[in-house]
Amino acid sequence: MITIPRHPMSRRTVLRGVGATIALPLLEAMTPWRALAAEKTKPPIRLAWVYVPNGIQMKHWTPAKEGGDYELPDLLAPLKDFREDFSVLSGLAALQGGHDGGNHAPAMAAFLTGTQPRRDVRCGVSADQIAASKIGQLTRLPSLEIGSKRIGGASCDGFPCVVSSTLSWPSPTQPLPLEPSPRAVFDRLFGTGQADRKKATARRSILDTVQGEAASLSTRVSSDDRHKLDEYLTAVRDVERRVGRTEELPAPNPPQGAARPGDGIPAEFAPHVRLMGDMMVLAFQADVTRVCTFIFEPEGSGRSYPEIGVKGGHHNLSHHGGRVETVEQIMKIERHHVTQFAYLLGKLKAVKEGDGNLLDNCMIAYGSGLGDGDRHDHKDLPILLAGKGGGSLKPARHVRYPTNTPITNLWLSLLERAGATTKTLGDSTGPLKGLD
Amino acid sequence: MTRQKLLFVALVAMAPMSVRAADPPGEKPAPVPGAAFVQRYCLSCHSAEKKRGDLDLSGFRDEATVVAGRKVWSNAIRAVRDGEMPPKGAPQPTADAREAFAEAVRGAFLRADAGKPRDPGRVTIRRLNRTEYNNTVRDLCHIEFEPADNFPADEPSHGFDNQGDALSLSPLLMERYLDAAEVVVARALAGKPAKPAERVGFAQFMVSGSKVPYRLYVFTSEPVAATFRIAADGEYLVRVEGKPVKKDDPAPEVSVIVDGKELKRVTFAFPEKGAYTRYEIPVALKQGNRRVSLRLLNPPAELEEKKAAYPPQVDANRDNRPGLELHAIDLVGPTDDEPESRRRILACDPKAQPREQAREILTRFADRAFRRPATAEEVDRYLKLYDRSLEAGQNFEAAIGTSLQAILVSPNFLFRVELDDRPQEKGSHPISEYQLASRLSYFLWSSMPDEALLPLAAKGELSKNLDAQVTRMLADDRSDALVENFAPQWLDIRDLARVTRGPQLDVRLRESMARETLLFCDEVLRKDRPITDFLDGRYTFLNERLARHYGLAQFGRDKRTAAPVPAHAFVRVELPADGPRAGVLTHASVLTMTSNPDRTSPVKRGTWILENVLASPTPPPPADVPPLEQAAAGTVKEPVTVRGRLELHRSKPGCAACHAKIDPLGFALERFDVLGQYRDKDGKAPVDDAAELSNGQKFQGTDGLRKVLLGKKDQFTKCLTEKMLTYALGRGLGDHDGPTVDAIVAAVAKDNYRFQRLIFEVVRSSPFTMRRGTKETPK
Description:
By secondary structure, chain A is of the alpha/beta class. Chain A contains 10 helices and 9 strands. By secondary structure, chain B is of the alpha+beta class.
């Protein structure tokens, strides 16, 4: 007789499909900001970042010409229907993403923070979290972090893997985990029932009680431990705020036509990110949050895409050394990613809002913290900026900036437009000009 | 920058600068161990002037300075023993001289460590990780439920997901904790079992081996029986339904017997209404297989005489012979109104005032949740919450439930807090008995201390009985957690479920691969095998699928019945002594995880061995790795094989130093493809699994590799010790842990490398049982 360990493998590991899907396009629905203001107000501006790992084949990405009259390069072809809705920004750099020994993890951590991460998980506050702290109180959720989780086999460059699995840092020591399950995102957006309010009252008193305990404990532990308890207290206060907001801003009904996704995470890339994209659209549409980071794949991802005929792992392929076949393979992945982005833009555009559509009121940056992945280059990053920012952005152009312009300058400009102005961000030198 | 350079830059930076000042005046300091060796083979390059590899050994003047520069010198003996140093071309010492040098340096370390109190280091308070949370909730609330499956993943650090420093607590997680607490308390206090009473019987109704689907005619006193599997202890109902064959027959009297003991006698009169008469007889049953039999007490005499001629008849009684017409034997339940969880959590003095009852309930729960007696102040806080809930209109039970939820999200539950009970003490001193109980239970069970550990801790007798407790705990089922959590993380196969390797790697194959490795590790632990089995154990566990995958189909069958071994039931298989497979290195799980999606990766496999077997990880590639080929795309003449490409890679100076160590180990495994299947050809080319170590030692294939690794037994032991200690302590190891690791390695080696020895030694070690005093607080 042999003993079989009880759960030799997590029972959730089975790559399950997803039951229900969302019936989009969505119909225009009543959203809270409209409900709150009886007369017509200007729709709010939403900010999102979509991240892809391992750099891009820049030769096939960057348009030859500047200005509006450029020819769409090969890798941007999937976006041809959205030419009027996005700009290509070139020349931006995330120089803090370089690190002695290990370039992927820092590339991601530095992308929104402009700060070089340390191996003991210290970085800087990220652009999205600055937005969350300044405009997050206006919505039910200050921000949303979604995307794909790391699949094994990909190294984390000697950093704790969390460094290369998130873009969001509310504080320099606390990276925020992302949520990979479409259903879990849906439940966070729209609550799980009418019991929400009653629950909120009970929660408030529970949180009160444990805060007292943590505070008293905190006086009796060493400084390292106190740091952990501070983290606990921060989390408790954050949830408390959120509970408070639940009372003031109860979970809205999901927009008409939106259904709760099935349990589990689709095994294949495209169905998964599309479903997650649908969630982001719902969140913006119902104004549950105005800030979102969306990680298509974590930095250094070794995912392979057999469904589009790419057997090699993404990271491996990125070190192609110029081999033609390998470059062709990785470009398939890059195009596949852009195709999903096009899907996302399409969904946003299909939602009517005010006189235009939802995309008009968005600012969505798409890109990677690595330029040329083969060389681990953090300069000349591939960056797209989609949406009109409520009229504050002028898309449909290719703008080239001087070499090594910090990408954090771009984030400063976006934050300003979103009403979350901040003076500096990591290595920023001042807001980026030429976006309007 | 070469690998040595990288390494030594870091090491030299740690070496103390002015150790000599500490020497007592007048006494002649002991010389540098192996001074002559160092003089002859090392100093010509590692001198103050040349400082090759940024290493200057001339600064070490005596034994004390060498001990102080422990890390530099540990690395030096490793490099000398491995033949990495002196480099090729330089005069080479004999193997004996190398050993003697290593021994001399190690001797100096041991002398220095002897009798000295060891710095036990410090552990940051640890949040329960997902596994620990699930297990703790299960043991605390007596429910089977895994709420943590919805929690965000715990970030691993130092290779494990239970490291205090990395286990952070985000608002998202806090929200999930609150949700989980609500569901856990609701389940634990549920008045009725979560599932309705379940009929578990009819399908298993067996008579002489045949299944009886419907009706059974019984004519004699020969008993008929059915077996039921009972999942949990509890109250059940035996339900029997029957009638006389004909209305005028005498009513059959039947003895209802459970597990050989008569439960009740019943009489089946002819039913006035309906098809049969039903009896439901309550019975308390224990978990396991239970046999319910019926015996006819008044069989017709003429049939009873020729018993053998009148066996029970299934679904047919054409002659209308008298007897019992049986419709069902069933077992229904459990029927308890009060499930165990609820009974145990809410137990209290029935005569006391409600608030006192609440105090009793909350105190007991908090004591267990905090894994130590809760203070009066703490209990009062939860009582106040109870009061508040009552005021808000909740009833007694709901108010208790709210307080229980609060306990489940309190820092004392979610974190393993180890407050110092002697905070003024300068020197290191033992952690408290309760803390020791938790360290033990989370190490061996990934769960809270049980009803045996806590009373021992209360009496202050746990540290005296450590060995006996470890023995007991390893024998307990819960120690499966050690295998399930430690092994896959050590061997880095946890993500097997998530990698893509084409359609051949389906769910069943993945699961089979992972389970093979788990079962193998389980065997080494349970049978207390030497840890060298991980490298060369000629046995494994296979099911039919995996046996087929390995081309060992003959093993995928049951020895006796020759039936294929089903997916869930693995059998232990002795592997052929001349086959390529032995130990975990040739498990499909490991070989798959160390491959790229589309080809094998000698680099990944070599790195894996260095990190997980030899404890000598290589630094990540430098930032400025030049691309494999500088030339423009398409003009390069491509080497066909992976080996060819790597050889090109190794010819670059920036890559050579590390890859000369990494690649040969990986080459030796080239006979296994991306899924760990044996192959003779890689594409069209024949597999070349010959390899050469940086010291010039040549070897071939897995056999050769095994010999190389077995030659470094102590290094492997050190590796496993470090991993196990990291897992047990929940922190990365530092310089101050060096003596502990050395001592454990020596003890394990002395005890024939037995696996359990390693566990015992980790538990007894000073970092596990002690805490730092104020004096040792690091700069």
